[in-house]
Amino acid sequence: MHITNKITLFFTSILVFLFIIQCSNDDGLFQENFDESMVYTSLEDLQLELLQNDTIQFDLPTDETDTTFQTPGGIRLIFPPNSIVPIGGGNGDGGSGGGGETPVPPYTVYVTEIYKRGDFVRNYFQTYQEEFPLVSGGAFSVLVRDANGNLMSVENVQAFVPYKTKATGYVNDMNAFQFVGIPTLPGYASNSSEIQVPIVYDPTSGPTGEFHHANIALGWNHIGSRLNMTESTQITVKVTNAPDYFDTRVFFVMDDFTMITEIYTIEGDQLKTLLESVPKNATGKLIAISLIEDQLFFASQDITINGNDHFDLTVAPGTLEELQALLETID
Q1: What kind of fold does domain 229-328 have according to CATH?
Q2: pTM for the whole structure
């Protein structure tokens, strides 16, 4: 009986030892709620997840006849004959802007459209021309690839864009802007340049009217009007628990209009807007998005801009779905 108890204790000890070894190799038991799908190597990686269902595509068999597409968001795109051209123009001899491949049909047209303020944030876009805030009438991107996958340019393509933003008082004073630069870099839309294309608002077309863009550009197009600021100022923001601002983006979303400011200039341990680039007495929401140790953190805070204000935000861990839900509420 004494020998039997020793044998039983021996085998029990072995089983406990093996269980401990197995547990030490099982990170899931030691990293509570760890989910590899929530690991993001960069804010650009996060953005791909945020935008994965945003772009739609159309097939264009030929550009020899007039073709009209209508997007789910309501944009009508009209491609006239011979509207697909090599980048740089010309007849496939290289043109002046690079590319130059002779277009080979059929073509694929990729379209993304933005109206809601939360969607501008998801795309990391601010509505600015240099230091001047713009009230947005909407933004859309058009890319075209030919049968060989080459990126093509467009000429004389028209867009009729539904009025779905907050732009009361500005609809008859809209201009065409083209975003210039790399979309993922901070302050991307602040490099937008005005292009000499008339924007005409027709209040009788559709439920709320629409804007006519007479000649769209390749890539991102923005319909906007300079915000009238009686008094202007600047603000600073500190994200208190962000280790640095390499993986942090901060936006101010105005209440009254579709106007979005990205606050991206680093000054010590805080971020600042450009001088005199935000309106005094404006109300809105600050949104901070950060990656800390490859995990998503974010925060939002309602603010009033009185002049030379400083705001502190502390970001908290959250899921992609929770961030999407927050941005979805900002119309």
Answers
A1: Immunoglobulin-like (2.60.40)
A2: 0.85
